[in-house]
Design a protein that fits this description.
Blueprint: H1 4-12, E1 19-20, E2 23-24, H2 25-31, H3 34-53, H4 57-90
Antiparallel strand pairs: 1-2
Length: 96
Amino acid sequence: MVKPRKTFFQKIIPPKPAELQGYSLNRIMIFGLILPAFVFLGLFLGIHLSFSLGLPVNIAFIVVALWTFTGFAFGTFILMRYTPKLIKYAEVKRKC
């Protein structure tokens, strides 16, 4: 027996495709987490460094901002450098 709510929402929201033009959506979404991970890591390291050194608030803000920007720059560099390899990995292999 199918629940009416389930069929109603399936008509409104189509199911998510497993692939998009030959690329795996799951792998693409995982690769989309690379840059935020580096930004978060830079933010966390900046906060940890500021608290461990006992810096004043204005200097701590500058340190946190620089570490966060460094994480963003490094994550962007990694994505730009390895995009062809990531795209190749995200391709869905067809079995013929």
